Amino acid sequence: MTLDDLKARHSTLLAARYSGTRSVSYDGKTVTYGTDAEMAAAIADIERRIASIERGSRRIFRPHAVKDL
Question: Does a structural domain hold residue 62?
Fold first, then answer.
């Protein structure tokens, strides 16, 4: 899933939550959340995924020396 897809789903979920509806449709699929807590968990999951993609994978290189050659 691309960053643009995640942001679109995030804005759709937020709009649905603020309007008081529990059903969200995207990509021809409809998802109905049972409670507001389930919808909040889905929003939090998407926010974590967006943050992970935007942060990127950072590798830390640490020098390592070996005395025995």
Answer: no
- Torsion sign across C-alpha atoms 34, 39, 40, 46: positive
- Whole-model pTM: value is 0.75
Q: Do residues 19 and 69 touch, judged by C-beta distance below 8 A? A: no
Question: Six-digit token pair at 17?
Answer: 């939550």
- The span from the CA of 45 to the CA of 39, in Å, is 10
Show the CA angle centred on residue 55, arms to residues 41 and 48, nearest 5°. Answer: 5
* Residue 39, domain member (yes or no): yes
pLDDT digits (tens, 9 = 90+) for 7-52: 999 999 999 999 999 999 988 899 999 999 999 999 999 999 999 8
What is the count of structural domains for the chain?
1
